[in-house]
Design goal:
The complex is a heterodimer of chains A (85) and B (414). Chain A has 85 residues and is mainly alpha-helical. Chain A has a domain of 59 residues: Non-ribosomal Peptide Synthetase Peptidyl Carrier Protein, Chain A, CATH 1.10.1200.10. Chain A has four helices and no strands. Chain A is globular. The model of chain A has no long low-confidence stretch (mean pLDDT 91). Chain B folds into two domains: 244 residues, Peroxisomal Thiolase, Chain A, domain 1, CATH 3.40.47.10; 153 residues, Thiolase/Chalcone synthase (Peroxisomal Thiolase, Chain A, domain 1, 3-Layer(aba) Sandwich). Chain B is built from 13 helices and 15 strands. In chain B, strands 1, 2, 5, 6, 7, 8, 9, 10, 11, 14 and 15 form an eleven-stranded mixed beta sheet that branches. Chain B has a two-stranded antiparallel ribbon with strand order 3-4. Classes of the chains: A mainly alpha (85), B alpha/beta (414).
């Protein structure tokens, strides 16, 4: 995938996290942990997955959700799902 | 037998937020009914309701918390915040298996339910959410109260239509009396002013259509009454084992001394004076009080043709000729009918009437009705005092389905 493509996924993922968790953009780095750093719980993770599915028109299986731990994990995960389609 | 005290009060009503503000309006005979502004009412015959405009969730919750709480839960928690603060129980004293929550609601998370249904039926074009069920389930309010205030005892939500709040307080009262808890957060909350609910009530033709002016629409016991005005709100009390309350120097508003609960077993909407009379009689018996000892009745008084006549008849069956000497009021004339919250808000109003020795008026009374010929305190708030003290009172709540709940309140004397 091109660097531009990765960046646009990153922007979209960040804007979803900001909207769902009501956090500031400055709080998000690639290693920011959703639960440990941003106080998200499993319901937040589910909601973020729903928004990602809607935004990118992908289907995220249940097993994938626990792996969405950091911002970077999510960006990579979305990239993989898009590539697989 | 254990005595139970009311040591804290939290109130959210169309006339304001907080016990002092709401009582002030009640004492002045001020109405909180206004035109609905949050959604389109052009297809409805009724465009007024008791909206709690002064309630702002932002004053009690941050954005994330609010996103997980339906309006009804926000109001219930906020009222609990106020009640527990008043009661001086904010230092972990509620963190106990002996402290619980008993909450009444008629419509639960109705606003959220409509939101999620809308999203579902529009094929997900709205917001699909993982929080749909925890946000809209009927026990969301009482569970969130437990989480926030750490009450680990019995946590129950009761839904008995218009008597939910009263039944919740009555059940909580009995739990303490019979040793299942030392302290209970009890009351009711409802936020039913939604497009779907207003439309559904319209089909029953039971809402007042006297939209102009809104403050004069609700006319309990008046011959020209034409139905109730829907409202929202929350009424929460802290009930406590009296001995423990006195021990810690808590302010005691009044004592709850009796509770009666019956079913008409008659019709799903039409009231039956027999079931209502029995609820009053059983409440008096539970209190160990004779009808002659009742100084005041806070009526259910919805301003429907049927309720007001049936309730008047029921009162006569219990109190006989003395019915004509007991002041009776309906604060729904000012606050509207907040469904599951009403029984709790009215219980609180009864407690405050005893504390202030003042009975708020039934406003908007215009024409006398031979079927409703008792003293409804229509001339304005009535003062009591040393010559004629307000000592013992009852609060009536008669819900759809024939669910009747009556509570007996007595002034606290050391």
């Amino acid at each position: 995938m091109t660097r531009e493509a990765v960046e646009s996924i990153e922007d979209a993922v960040k804007s979803i996290i900001i909207a769902e968790l009501r956090v500031e953009p400055s709080q998000l780095g690639p290693t920011t942990h959703l639960m440990k750093d941003l106080g998200a719980d499993s319901l937040d993770a589910l909601n973020i997955a729903l928004r990602l599915e809607e935004r990118f028109r992908i289907k995220i299986p249940d097993e994938a959700i626990p792996r969405f731990l950091t911002v970077g994990d999510i960006v990579n995960g979305v990239g993989e799902h898009l590539a697989a389609q | 037998m254990k005595r139970i005290a009311v040591t804290g009060i939290g109130l959210i009503a169309p006339t304001g937020v907080g016990r002092e503000r709401v009582w002030e309006a009640l004492a002045e005979g001020r109405s909180g009914i206004s035109r609905i502004e949050d959604f389109d009412t052009s297809n409805l015959k009724t465009n007024i309701a008791g909206v709690c405009r002064e309630f702002r969730g932002e004053e009690f919750f941050d954005e994330r918390e609010m996103s997980r709480l339906d309006r009804v839960s926000q109001m219930a928690i906020a009222a609990t915040e106020m009640a527990t603060r008043e009661a001086g129980l904010t230092n972990g004293q509620l963190d106990s298996y002996d402290a619980g929550v008993y909450l009444g609601t008629g419509f639960g998370g109705q606003g959220s339910i409509e939101e999620f249904c809308g999203a579902f039926f529009s094929n997900g074009k709205g917001r699909r959410s993982a929080i749909a069920i925890p946000k809209s389930m009927y026990n969301a309010s009482s569970s969130n109260i437990a989480i926030r205030f750490k009450t680990r005892g019995p946590n129950i939500t009761v839904t008995t239509a218009c008597s939910s709040g009263a039944n919740a307080i009555g059940q909580a009262f009995h739990l303490i009396r019979y040793g299942h808890a030392d302290r209970m957060i009890a009351g009711g909350a409802d936020a039913p002013i939604t497009p779907v609910v207003m439309d559904a009530w319209k089909e029953m033709r039971v809402l007042s259509t006297k939209n102009d002016p809104p403050e004069r629409a609700c006319k309990p016991f008046s011959a020209n009454r034409d139905g109730f005005v829907l409202a929202e709100g929350a009424g929460i009390v802290v009930l406590e084992d009296l001995e423990k309350a006195v021990e810690r120097g808590a302010h005691i508003y009044a004592e709850v001394i009796g509770y009666g609960s019956t079913a008409d077993a008659s019709h799903i909407t039409f009231p039956d004076p027999d079931g209502e009379a029995h609820a009053m009689t059983r409440a008096l018996k539970d209190a160990g009080v004779r009808p002659e000892e009742i100084d005041y009745i806070n009526a259910h008084g919805t301003a429907t043709k049927l309720n007001d006549a049936s309730e008047t008849e029921a009162i006569k069956r219990v109190f006989g000729s003395r019915s004509y000497e007991i002041p009776i009021n309906s604060i729904k004339s000012m606050l509207g009918h907040s469904m599951g919250a009403a029984g709790a808000i009215e219980f609180i109003s009864t407690v405050l009437a005893i504390e202030h020795q003042l009975v708020p008026p039934t406003i908007n009374y215009e024409e006398s009705d031979p079927q409703c010929d008792l003293d409804y305190v229509t001339e304005g708030a009535r003062e009591f005092g040393s010559s004629r003290p307000l000592r013992t009172a009852i609060s009536n709540s008669f819900g759809f389905g024939g669910n009747n709940a009556v509570l007996v309140v007595r002034a606290y004397v050391k």
